[in-house]
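Quick one, tokens below. Sequence please?
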């Protein structure tokens, strides 16, 4: 800990100086075979995912009759709706036209409607001038551009479609165009790029137990609703397309809305196996919670629509793997063929990067001309592009400064508050023993924790004898195909039978170096100290995958992998903490007491592990965040907390419930932090620590649950020593 664990000058001279020559606790410089250890966490998630995806492939291979395929389709639809979660109630769109632009051959109406009350969608309706009766319509969903459908690339496609006789409704995805959620008025732009605009609030949705995909799909569904209010539109001839993020929105929306006859997702459809092997999981709305563990893949988004017309638009150098796209198309084509509709599913590819090409555009025009019954030339034409501001639907070009309204964060906040209220009721209704059992079971289920069945081999890696202590190094088998590095410090004199497991959010090398005062203050009391790293921490992280939502040195995308597989980072790390504990219990030293200390956000993992195994007798959390709920309710939460949260947990439990479940063991909380990373105020501490305090008091062990708030610069090592005693 920086500037907090300060010992006397005498102690520094007589006890700590020998450490400085032997402070190296690195193991992977020696064990070259394990040099890829920093990718342990992500590769473990991938290995689990590949096994789950293989089961899906095996299930597909078992299909033979048309009835088998129809039953699979029914099952997939049910799973999709279950994973997406219940949609909001349909309420009045309150649509209004804020401006009209007349152009040669077509007109543009600038439109605003509400997909949810107060949740505004900014859009433009392009209407061809020459129409014979009701016209076919295409919904255009934009990719990840800051200016939404006003991007020149997207305008080119939209205007070509309208000139070919289609009504086109182009709308801004939330977090783009005029719907920026983190708009900085002084800078005139969002604090984040489009992908982070999605993933930052999307992570809070995951904490609530659902994917933000729900909001993106709902905008698409309500866009269909809007089209159906227009007399110009034929309700039987509606299509949808979009590139990149627009391809995502097209695929998911068309999968659940049967009113969309023809769907043409561009530069998105591949397979999740190849996504994981290449770019990694993308931003939040692309990842349905537990999608892979439920046995679903990109192909299912198309197969569930059979026999409705579909076109996969791809490029050979796209970061969405063309190999995955080809394999997916092969499966989907067979699915359609077995239902007697093989000609309804097609694929076009061109040799380019993640881009819209002339060949692909013309294939898309032809697709809609055929299946929406609007014959004509598919030739891609040169068109006049609008200036961005011409297509603004609001006065300022941003809802944030015009109508304000709801955002993903504010919508999710209402859900979180209801979940928290229900959790408080549960705490009051259940007696402590029942609540503890329930919380333990729920924590295992939501985190994906499994108690290790096999512990594997331990590699001894050297002993260093120093003045006052001995340092031993070990590699311990982890829950995946990786080894956990551990360094055991053993005091030479006054040694007792206690070992303290120390987890530092910055890694064991940090704890042995900059935080060495903490380590040696414990050693001086006669207790041994075991430092170790967990996947994603210290020498086992951060790994090569940053992804498209990398904030505050935190890869949201690696966390998304655990969400797809229903195996959280917290669950994985809790398993490994118990592997370390097992090593201590079966190792060469005779320890009767196991205590554990965690520094930073990783306190969440220690809390889970300690609840799952009662042999960890004393627990100290230094600078922990106090609850998942607070992170979900905090508009400016600290991104580095996200890997230590469990998606969906607050449906059933939160960290204060785990703290209470530790009763009557000794628990010490030092300098707790708020969801924003700032020191927790008195009200916050009171709110999150009240429940465990009540439980400890009712059980007559009030003195076993304590929290300490030290002033800046005030040493807290004394509290740690008292806790050990």
């Amino acid at each position: 800990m920086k500037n907090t664990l300060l010992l006397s000058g005498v102690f520094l001279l007589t006890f700590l100086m020998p450490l400085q020559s032997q402070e190296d606790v690195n193991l992977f410089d020696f064990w070259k075979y394990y040099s890829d250890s920093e990718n342990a966490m992500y590769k473990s998630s991938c290995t689990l995912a590949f096994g789950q995806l293989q089961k899906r492939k095996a299930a597909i291979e078992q299909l033979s009759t048309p009835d088998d395929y129809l039953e699979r389709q029914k099952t997939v639809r049910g799973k999709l709706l279950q994973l997406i979660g219940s949609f909001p109630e349909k309420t009045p769109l309150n649509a209004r036209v804020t401006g009209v632009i007349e152009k040669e051959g077509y007109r543009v109406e600038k439109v605003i409607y509400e997909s949810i009350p107060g949740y505004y969608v900014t859009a433009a309706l392009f209407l061809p001038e020459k129409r014979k009766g009701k016209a076919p319509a295409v919904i255009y969903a934009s990719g990840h551009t800051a200016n939404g459908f006003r991007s020149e690339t997207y305008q080119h496609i939209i205007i070509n479609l309208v000139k070919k006789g289609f009504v086109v409704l182009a709308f801004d995805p939330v977090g783009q165009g005029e719907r920026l959620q983190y708009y900085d008025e002084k800078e005139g732009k969002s604090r984040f790029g489009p992908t982070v605009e999605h993933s930052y609030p999307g992570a809070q949705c995951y904490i609530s137990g659902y994917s933000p995909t729900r909001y993106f799909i709902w905008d698409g569904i309500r866009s269909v609703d809007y089209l159906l209010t227009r007399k110009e539109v034929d309700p039987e001839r509606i299509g949808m397309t979009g590139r990149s993020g627009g391809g995502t929105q097209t695929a998911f929306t068309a999968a659940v809305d049967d009113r969309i006859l023809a769907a043409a997702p561009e530069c998105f459809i591949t397979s999740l196996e190849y996504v994981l092997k290449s770019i990694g999981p993308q931003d939040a709305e692309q990842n349905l919670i537990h999608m892979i563990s439920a046995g679903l893949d990109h192909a299912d988004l198309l197969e569930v629509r059979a026999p409705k017309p579909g076109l996969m638009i791809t490029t050979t150098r796209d970061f969405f793997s063309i190999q995955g796209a080809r394999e997916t198309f092969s499966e989907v084509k067979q699915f359609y063929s077995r239902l007697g509709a093989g000609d309804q599913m097609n694929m076009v590819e061109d040799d380019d990067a993640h881009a819209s090409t002339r060949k692909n555009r013309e294939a898309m025009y032809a697709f809609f001309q055929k299946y929406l019954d609007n014959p004509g030339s598919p030739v891609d034409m040169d068109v006049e592009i609008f200036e961005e501001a011409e297509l603004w639907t609001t006065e300022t070009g941003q809802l944030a400064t015009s109508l304000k309204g709801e955002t993903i964060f504010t919508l999710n906040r209402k859900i979180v508050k209801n979940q928290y209220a229900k959790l408080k009721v549960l705490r009051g209704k259940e007696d402590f023993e029942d609540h503890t059992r329930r919380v333990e079971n729920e924590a295992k289920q939501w985190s994906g924790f499994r108690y290790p069945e096999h512990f594997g081999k331990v590699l001894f890696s050297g002993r260093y004898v120093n003045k006052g202590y001995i340092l031993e190094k070990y590699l311990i088998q982890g829950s995946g195909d990786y080894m956990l590095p551990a360094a055991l410090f053993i005091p030479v004199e006054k040694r007792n039978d206690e070992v303290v497991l120390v987890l530092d959010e910055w890694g064991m090398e940090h704890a042995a170096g900059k935080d060495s005062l903490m380590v040696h203050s414990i050693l001086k009391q006669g207790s041994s100290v075991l430092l170790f790293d967990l996947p994603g921490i210290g020498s086992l992280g951060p790994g090569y995958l940053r992804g498209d939502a990398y904030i505050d040195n935190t890869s949201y995308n690696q966390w998304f992998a655990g969400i797809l597989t229903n195996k959280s980072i917290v669950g994985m790390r809790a398993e490994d903490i118990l592997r370390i504990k097992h090593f201590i219990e079966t190792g060469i030293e005779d320890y009767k007491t196991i205590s554990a200390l965690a520094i930073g956000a990783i306190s969440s993992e220690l809390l889970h592990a300690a609840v799952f195994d009662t042999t960890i007798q004393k627990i100290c959390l230094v600078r922990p965040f106090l609850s998942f709920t607070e992170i979900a309710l905090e508009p400016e939460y600290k991104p580095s907390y996200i890997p230590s949260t469990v998606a969906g947990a607050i449906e059933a439990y939160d960290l204060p419930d785990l703290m209470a479940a530790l009763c009557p063991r000794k628990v010490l909380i030092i300098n707790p932090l708020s969801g924003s990373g700032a020191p927790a105020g008195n009200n916050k501490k009171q709110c999150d620590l009240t429940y465990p305090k009540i439980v400890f008091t009712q059980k007559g062990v009030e003195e076993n649950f304590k929290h300490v708030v030290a002033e800046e610069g005030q040493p807290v090592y004394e509290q740690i020593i008292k806790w050990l005693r």
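The first strand starts at residue 96 and ends at 103. The longest helix spans residues 40-61.
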